[in-house]
């Protein structure tokens, strides 16, 4: 009985299996190299900053220059305040812009709007800070929480807009047609049916945008400036974790260096928590589909 020329010989089969194993090993090594920096960053943050994490770090204000101790309570509250102000600006404008791109407008106009949003997504954060500096800081002659929140909010808009558009496009067209056939107004179809169907995806995009701006320092240097005390007026400078970390990291005091590592650890934990929340939302959305 002759062997068919189309059937692989045992030696050829072993050779193909060896190549498959080698390629798989290379891909595994590449994947490990990709995630290795993340684990290295987390390791160094835990090693350098964990010793400074105590009750005082989360409840006390920074001590005067050269005095050991104190904490970053004002910076933590300031970061949350700035993120809330940024969300108040970036979320409504970004979501409405995404709805316009997905549901209204001509192809030519939408093409230019998408191009502009993609360009704005690539603009360096320091440029946003300089623009808001000229818009709000120079005319009012003061750094403020309003200026910092505005800079971060403007950075959110293009990312939220593009994410919202992509999620709305995924909603089946039959949903719109069925509602319109029943005589439902178009604006109600969009707000009650389309947006509600894509709500988890929109929320995911918003959280991703907030995670992106949470660690920005450059725009806050031009707008919020920083503050070693509690902020009781949003028209005044406000503290933020990125600013406090920057100030402590360039100082000549070892205790401040230790607290800078602790602040970076807290900021990293905040960003990781936001990303984990995004993963949970995305998983639920996929399971629902």
Descriptive overview:
The chain contains twelve helices and no strands. The protein has helices spanning 10-49, 55-59, 73-103, 107-121, 125-140, 145-169, 173-181, 186-197, 199-213, 218-223, 241-249, 254-288. The longest helix is centred in the first third of the chain and has 40 residues, at 10-49. It is flat. The mean pLDDT is 90.
In short:
The chain has helices spanning 10-49, 55-59, 73-103, 107-121, 125-140, 145-169, 173-181, 186-197, 199-213, 218-223, 241-249, 254-288. The chain has 289 residues and is an all-alpha fold.
Fold blueprint:
Elements: H1 10-49, H2 55-59, H3 73-103, H4 107-121, H5 125-140, H6 145-169, H7 173-181, H8 186-197, H9 199-213, H10 218-223, H11 241-249, H12 254-288
Mean pLDDT reading: 90
Please report which band the strand proportion falls in: under 5%, 5-15%, 15-25%, 25-35%, 35-45% or over 45%.
Answer: under 5%
Number of helices: 12
Unreliable segments of 5+ consecutive residues: none
Structural class based on helices, strands and sheet pairing: mainly alpha
**Estimated helix fraction:** over 70%
Question: Radius of gyration over alpha carbons?
Answer: 25 Å
Order of helices and strands: HHHHHHHHHHHH
**DSSP summary, beta strand count:** 0
| Shape descriptor | flat
Give the termini distance in whole angstroms. Answer: 53 Å
> Largest sheet, if any?
none
